[in-house]
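User: Can you help me understand a structure? I only have the sequence.
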Amino acid sequence: MLDTALAFSVINRHFDVADFLLEHGAAINTTWNSHEPASILHHLVFEGNDDSMRLLIDRGIDMTINDYRWRRRRQRELKR
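Assistant: Let's start by predicting it. Here is the structure, written out as tokens:
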């Protein structure tokens, strides 16, 4: 539950709430979306939400994480 709240707080730029949730156990590297697992960072990249991406990067999100749809280019090339 904290992970979903974290995702929505970051997406909606409620950074004070996001920091509170991280301090109280929300997982920054979560795959939070129930119908299609996605990392918060990939969702933000898709939206072009730079401020929120910066918050997650500054808080230590795994920059190499993969999710359901989005993978690094090299991994896509290896799967071909």
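Now, to help you interpret it: The chain has one domain: 2-79. The helical segments are 2-11, 15-23, 40-47, 50-58, 73-79. Let me know which part you'd like to focus on.
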